[in-house]
Amino acid sequence: MIDLLHSTWIEFLKIIPILVGAIFVAQIVGHFLAKKEMHKKIGSSNKNIARAAGIGLVTPGPLLAYLPTLKDMQKKGVPLSLIIAFITGQTLIGPLRIFLEINYFGVLFFLIRAVISFLLAIAIGISFRVLQERFKIIKKI
Amino acid sequence: MNQVALHSITKKSAKQIVIILPIFFIAIFIGVLIENYLPGELIKRVLGEKSFFAIPIAAIIGIIFPIPRYVTYPIAFALVSSGAGLGVAFALISGEVISESIVRDVMEIKLFGFRFFSVRLLLSTIGIIAGGYIMEAIL
Q1: Contacts with A12 (C-beta within 8 Å, 6 or more apart), sequence order
Q2: Number of folded domains in chain B?
Q3: Number of helices and strands (H, E) in chain A?
Q4: CB-based contact, A74 to chain B, within 8 Å
Q5: Candidates A83, A88, A109; nearest CB to B139
Q6: Higher pLDDT, B66 or B126
Q7: ipTM of this complex > 0.85?
């Protein structure tokens, strides 16, 4: 048991500087990313799914903080396909994750995951739009 | 950056550090336990590259279990070190974030409705499983 705790402690000490640095960077990015300007950046056209996904990818912090802003944007006419693309991108990748992911799995893994996540966010946005156009139940959302 | 901004960033970061560090210690401990006690053969058989269901299993575990933010990394790393495929790491990490906490899910349902939430969850689950297979094929 003591051996296990010792191994854990050694690994923990190694990750502390990365974790602390990553948290600071994420907070700095979050500070300069004004929520009020999100609507302007994402836009209101259904064609902006890729842009919404991309903005989601670089937006740090828990999604919870952005949900009221996203609801406001929906009320102002932003399509749900853009909102779902943003949510998917925002949750899958974030500035804090870059440091942890590279530390554990390497740059290549992170880059591939980032590209797949970006494409997934776009695909989910498009699929949602198609489902909304075809099915009544989703139309009512 | 002015002093007020710096103070706010430092305060928020300190708060987050206090929350994340103990959880991370526990996650690393779980990772160490996996590496030391779970037989590599078993992990290879269930979550290895040759197991077709490894990626869907990892995605569903990530989605269902209330794993706190970022702590999937040491666990996924321990699984990969013990023989799981990188597609499993992708599915576990990505699964964890799409339904991260009950508080967030409740807020999302409250603001956008249950239908929106369930459609997003379904599409994300399918996407993450597909993404896991792509990751497995590439790396």
Answers
A1: B24, B25, B28
A2: 1
A3: 8, 0
A4: yes
A5: A109
A6: B126
A7: no
Contacts of A121 (CB under 8 A, 6+ apart): A52, A53, A56, A57, A85, A86, A88, A89, A92
Copy the structure tokens of residue B94: 């990505």
User: For residue B15, what is the nearest residue in chain A, using CA coordinates?
Assistant: A23
How many Å separate Cα B63 from the centre of its chain?
8
Residue B139 structure tokens = 């790396």
**Which pTM does this prediction carry?**
0.84
**With contact defined as beta carbons under 8 Å apart, do A55 and A38 qualify?**
yes
Q: What's at B40, amino acid-wise? A: G
CB within 8 Å of chain A, chain B residues 11-70: 12-13, 16-17, 20-21, 24-25, 28-29, 31-33, 36, 69-70
H or E, element range at A101:
helix A95-105
